[in-house]
Amino acid sequence: MEITTEYWYLLPASIVIATIAMSSGIGGAVFFSPLFMIGLQLEPKIAIGAALATELFGFSSGLYAYWKSKLIDFNLGLSLLVISIPFAILGTVYGDLVPPMVLKAIFAIGIIFIGYQLYISWREEEREKLAAEHKKEFEVIHESELTDVAGTTYKYTVCNKNMGRMFAAVGGAFLGMISVGLAELQEYHLVAKCKVPAKVAIATSIFVVVVTVLVASVGHFYEFAVEGGEVLNQVMNIIVFTIPGVIIGGQLGPKLQEKVPADKMKVAISILFIVVGIFMLYTLI
Known about the structure:
There is one protein chain. Helix content is 76%, strand content 3%. It has 10 helices and 2 strands, in the order αααααββααααα. By secondary structure, the chain is mostly helical. The mean pLDDT is 82. It has one domain (10-284). The radius of gyration is 19 Å and the shape is globular. A hairpin with a 5-residue loop joins β1 and β2 (153-156).
C-alpha cells in the first residue's frame, strides 16, 4: 500500500466541513459523499464507504466534546438506537437493490422540505414568544430536564415518539445505503416538531449517529479489506487526510455552537439543509 499526498487539500476541507457539521448536527457525509463522487470522481460505493469512515471519526470527536458539556440525553438516544441500528444494517446489506440516483433524489427533496419546516418552526416560535411573554415558565410541564456543565438547565418534552421511531428507521436505512439521512431526520423531529433545545437535540443526534455509523460502516470496511488492491489504497489515501481534519473540526464545532444563539442556530440549520438539498439535486442533473 502506497500513501501519497495527492489529496492533501482534503485536510483543511475536512476541518471546515466537520466544524459546520458538529455545530449544526447535520451529518458530515452529506458534504463528503458529493465531494468524493463529484470532486474526486470516485465510484458511489467507495465514496459512501470513505464518507462513513470519515464521519465516524468526526462525529466521535464531536461526541466527546458534547459529552464533556453534558448536553446528551442518553435515554432518548438509546431509545432511537434500538430502531436505527437494525435498519442501518438492512440498508447496508440491501442498498445495492435501489439505484443510488433515486435515493439521492428522494433525500435531496426531503432535506429541502426539512429545512423549510425548520424555518417555519422558528417563525412560529418567534410569534409564540411575543404572544406569551406574560406567562410564567412554571406553568408549562416538561417531561425531560437536562443541566449542562455550565449550569444551564434545559426543559423539554419529546413529542410524537412514534414519529421519532419511524424517522430513526428511515434515517438508519438511508445512512446504510447512501451514508446520509439519520442526523437530518432526527433534527427535524426533535427541533422542528418537538421544539427540543437545539443544543440538546444536536448533541443527542450526534450520539445516535456515531453508534449507528459504527455498525453500518463495518460492512463497507469489510468489503474494502477483502477487495484490497487499488480500492483499499485509494480509500486509505483519502481518509489519511480527512480523519485528522474531522477530528479537529469535531472539537471546533461545539465551541462554535456555544457562541451562536439557539434561535440563530435553527435558522442557520434550515438554510444549510435547503442549500445542501439543492446542491444534491444539482449533482443529479
